[in-house]
Design brief:
about 425 residues; alpha/beta; FAD/NAD(P)-binding domain; 3 domains; six-stranded mixed sheet; 19 strands; binds flavin-adenine dinucleotide
Length: about 425
């Protein structure tokens, strides 16, 4: 491997650092460049999704690089959704049949730091911080950095997130398809601090949701007893982030919509006014690579909206699959990248749609009786026939079945269940008719 050309990864976020670990462990040389300062010496940004839901796909990748146990030690198990009604009433909806089907709340900054440290321990990996890439020359594969000049690279990996500079350069090539779609909703993070002696002020082992029809708030637990809340709300219009700027209006809105959360949000107005409002974007593009010279991973090639908690998990799965393809095809890098794209792209397109659909489910449907009934039926069927019946959500979060395959399987399962229900109903009616006669 040490005779292979080095991989120059741009972006030491979640995907870039994990890929560096994968490749470094196999002995590939890795040069990793990141625009932000070194997290080992600096605190990370405030107000950007402080915790994330980690599920089976992400955990599998972390296990492959020997980091899963360390990550799990500081993660919080979330067994299901806790739904907060407008009157403060609570309903718990378990995610699955037991704790093997649960999510983990992890700190974004903590996970990123752990991955940076793990990559830095590998002799084959070099890390460079404070280096903002501004593009590359596709002919020579020379990368441009804002302050540090040019660096010649043999194989470039764009792991630089949804606003990727590497993808932007690839977009200038002919036949590069690109599509981005912003939601009209944005998001803002707020904090529920820990109670006395670090106590959790809400149920610790749950992902909390305040569904309110056209918008919602969620909260995930942190290790220190606090919760990070995220309000998803329209960016513009009469009821929107843009319109809500006066402290009294902010208090009034929260008291009306989230009455049980207000006493737990002592810095509500300050947080609301000072934390940034984030955008939610879906990005699709093709191809994901340029010959054998450059390839994209994670949000750089497939940003999805966060309503299935899969962006990071899918980015980690990219690293798993890309590593498999490199091992299968080395030193034919173009074949490896083509195989990687073929194995990932159709599934990430499906995930993008599922994430958009789940926004409607989370904000609008989770509170309804019909939804709860359907979920209960699905969980019961799964418990009864665990090998045969897997709800779509279970397949996405708690298995590694590729996303498009999961959707196909969920559709035929539903067709069979519907057929059985209709058949049993007809049989029952027939029996009733026969009895009456
Ligand atoms: C509100 C919200 C909640 C989310 N919740 C979840 C969740 O619960 N579970 C989940 O799985 N996913 C979640 N996601 C998605 C997840 O955050 C992303 O999918 C994940 O961070 C993608 O990882 P990445 O490494 O591809 O990109 P990023 O994490 O964005 O990392 C990109 C890195 O590249 C660096 N960089 C960018 N440009 C340059 C440049 N020009 N030069 C050098 N470096 C550069 C950045 O500084 C950064 O370090 C959420 C997203 C949002 C917005």
């Amino acid at each position: 491997m040490s005779e292979s050309p080095p991989f120059t990864i741009v972006g030491a976020g979640l995907a870039g650092t994990l890929l560096a670990c994968y490749l470094g462990r196999l002995g590939y040389r890795v040069e990793l460049h990141e625009r932000r300062p070194d997290p080992r010496h600096h605190n990370q940004d405030r107000g950007r999704s402080i915790n994330l839901a980690l599920s089976v796909r992400g955990l599998h990748a972390l296990r492959e690089v020997g980091l899963a146990d360390e990550v799990l030690r500081s993660a919080i198990l979330m067994r299901g959704r806790m739904i907060h009604g407008q009157a403060g009433d609570l309903t718990f909806q378990p995610y699955g049949k037991d704790d093997s089907e649960a999510l983990y709340s992890v700190s974004r900054a903590g996970l990123n730091l752990l991955l940076v440290e793990a990559a830095a321990r590998l002799p084959a990996v070099n890390l460079y911080f404070g280096q903002r890439c501004t593009g590359f020359d596709p002919g020579s594969n020379v990368l441009d950095f804002q302050d540090t000049g040019k660096i010649a690279a043999e194989i470039i990996v764009g792991a630089d997130g949804a606003y990727s500079a590497i993808r932007a350069q690839m977009q200038r090539q002919e036949h590069f398809n690109y599509q981005q779609e912003y939601l009209t909703h944005g998001y803002k993070e707020l904090t529920i601090p820990a109670g006395p002696n670090g106590a959790f002020q809400l149920e610790k082992h749950a992902l909390h949701i305040w569904p309110r029809g056209s918008f919602m708030m969620i909260a995930l637990p942190n290790q220190d007893g606090s919760f990070t809340c995220t309000l998803f709300w329209p960016l513009q219009g009469p009821n929107s982030f843009a319109a809500l700027t006066a402290p009294d209006d902010i208090r009034r809105f929260f008291t009306q919509q989230f009455p049980d959360a207000v006493p737990l949000l002592p810095t509500l107005v300050e947080d609301f006014l000072h934390n940034p409002t984030g955008s939610l974007v879906t990005i699709r593009c093709r191809p994901w690579h340029q010959g054998g010279k450059a390839v994209l991973v994670g949000d750089a090639c497939h940003a999805v909206v966060p309503f299935l908690g899969q962006g990071m998990n899918a980015a980690f799965e990219d690293c798993t699959v890309l590593t498999q393809c490199l091992q299968a095809h080395a030193p034919h890098w173009e074949a490896a990248f083509r195989d990687y794209e073929a194995r990932r792209k159709p599934h990430l397109d499906v995930l993008a749609d599922l994430c958009l659909e789940n926004f409607i489910e989370m904000r609008d449907r989770v509170g309804s009786r019909w939804f709860v009934l359907k979920k209960q039926l699905a969980v019961a069927l799964h418990r009864l026939l665990p090998r045969w019946y897997l709800p779509l959500y279970t397949m996405i979060e708690f298995t590694r079945i590729p996303y498009a395959d999961a959707l196909r399987r969920a559709r035929w399962q539903d067709r069979i269940v519907r057929g059985v229900l209709i058949g049993s109903g007809l049989l029952l009616l027939g029996l009733l008719w026969w009895q009456l006669r």
